């Protein structure tokens, strides 16, 4: 093992040991069909583009609104809640990080004299999530110096039956923060509000419902954040509203929880152009509803075509599908598709290694995917 340099020794041991989150590849290859990061294939509304262009003026020398007040007022009207129940963040990822830092204690503050061998992480220092799910969650727990408690999903990525939760050895109802991804990523499976509420009512700590893909699903659970004292909903303008480049998300929940999170955010955490774009987005709902419809239609067409080729495609309520290809391993399909200028996502983990996650692009993108898959089947099938 190589010895640490003098500079490396200045870094906190926790940080030296961290394994960072690895985002989806952002290649520079021209002509590549990019179906690996669940970006929306359609541009923002013309109203949004016009508003952003109009805002590129002398205001760039000024600080943005530190609390995104105008946007929070619009979101409050959309969700029928007080703006003080809303926190706007630099993407949904910042909302997740703030939740971990606000509600979860570091393990070091909880350990006491107990030996590591017999140490059981206490609930105040635990982030809990159903898995497989967004791989950022355990990274955020590690950054906080907290424990991460993975609770396995059931067959076909279903949530555990609420009545059986107490019998699951992994389940910790007292965990400081439980994150539920709904609809789930990377499976695309949707959950009913009734299922989600049953989980929430059996959880004592804060529950964060990560609804990054909610706009593509037939129902959502925003109502739970407005009636339960320990539930927060996290949303994003990236996937559904085509604003990945500007990084903007928000949380809705009980005033006490939201205001606590406000204390830890950066003073000017959301740039002014992102705020302008998000406000304009909310002014053109018809444009985005049509985009959601087109994406869902293309998703179903793609799923049907891939099934005809022998792929196992799981039902999806998101803007992507999780598919197990026929014949060679998914890793081989990933490589061959890449050689044909189609980039999808492959996860080298035991529960996902046999699948490909495929973002839904334009109809033309997906027709090319199916055509290439047919050709590859003749070669490697």
Structural write-up:
With 381 residues, the protein is an alpha/beta fold. It has helices at residues 13-17, 46-55, 69-79, 91-103, 136-144, 193-201, 222-227, 255-262, 272-282, 285-308, 330-339, 363-380, and strands at residues 33-34, 86-89, 126-131, 147-152, 177-181, 206-210, 231-236, 249-252, 312-313, 320-324, 342-343, 356-359. A 7-stranded mixed sheet has the order 2-8-7-6-5-3-4, with helices on both faces. It has a 3-stranded antiparallel sheet with strand order 9-10-12. It has a two-stranded parallel sheet with strand order 1-11. Strand 5 (177-181), helix 6 and strand 6 form a beta-alpha-beta unit. The two termini are 43 Å apart.
How are the elements arranged and paired?
Blueprint: H1 13-17, E1 33-34, H2 46-55, H3 69-79, E2 86-89, H4 91-103, E3 126-131, H5 136-144, E4 147-152, E5 177-181, H6 193-201, E6 206-210, H7 222-227, E7 231-236, E8 249-252, H8 255-262, H9 272-282, H10 285-308, E9 312-313, E10 320-324, H11 330-339, E11 342-343, E12 356-359, H12 363-380
Parallel strand pairs: 1-11, 3-4, 3-5, 5-6, 6-7
Antiparallel strand pairs: 2-8, 7-8, 9-10, 10-12
Helix pairs in contact: 2-9, 3-9, 4-5, 10-12
């Amino acid at each position: 093992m190589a010895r640490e340099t003098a500079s490396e020794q200045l870094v906190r041991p926790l940080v030296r040991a961290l394994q960072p989150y690895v985002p989806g590849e952002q290649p520079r290859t021209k002509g590549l069909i990019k179906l690996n990061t669940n970006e929306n294939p359609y541009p923002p509304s013309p109203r949004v583009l016009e508003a952003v262009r109009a805002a590129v003026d002398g205001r760039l020398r000024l600080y943005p609104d530190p609390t995104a007040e105008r946007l929070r007022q619009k979101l409050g009207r959309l969700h029928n809640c007080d703006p003080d129940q809303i926190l706007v963040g630099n993407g949904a990822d910042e909302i997740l990080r703030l939740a971990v830092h606000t509600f979860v204690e570091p393990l070091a503050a909880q350990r006491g004299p107990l030996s590591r061998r017999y140490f059981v992480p206490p609930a105040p220092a635990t982030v809990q999530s159903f898995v497989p799910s967004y791989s950022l969650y355990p990274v955020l727990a590690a950054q906080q110096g907290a424990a991460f408690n993975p609770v396995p999903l059931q067959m076909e990525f279903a949530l555990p039956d609420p009545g059986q939760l107490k019998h699951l050895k992994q389940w910790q109802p007292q965990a400081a923060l439980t994150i539920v991804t709904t609809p789930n990523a990377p499976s695309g499976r949707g959950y009913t509000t009734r299922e989600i509420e049953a989980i929430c009512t059996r959880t004592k700590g804060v529950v964060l419902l990560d609804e990054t893909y909610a706009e593509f699903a037939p129902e959502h659970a925003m109502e739970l954040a407005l009636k339960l004292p320990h539930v927060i909903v996290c949303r994003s303008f990236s996937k559904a509203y085509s604003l990945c480049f500007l990084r903007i998300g928000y949380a809705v929940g009980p005033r006490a929880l939201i205001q606590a999170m406000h204390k830890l955010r950066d003073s000017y955490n959301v740039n002014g152009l992102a705020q302008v774009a998000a406000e304009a987005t909310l002014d053109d709902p018809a444009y985005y509803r049509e985009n959601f419809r087109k994406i869902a239609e293309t998703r179903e067409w793609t799923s049907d075509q891939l099934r005809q080729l022998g792929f196992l495609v799981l039902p999806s309520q998101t803007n992507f599908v999780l598919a197990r290809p026929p014949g060679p391993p998914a890793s081989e399909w990933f490589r061959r598709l890449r050689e044909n200028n189609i980039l999808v996502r492959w996860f080298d983990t035991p529960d996902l290694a046999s699948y490909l996650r495929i973002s839904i692009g334009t109809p033309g993108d997906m027709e090319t995917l199916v055509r290439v898959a047919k050709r590859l089947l003749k070669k490697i099938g």
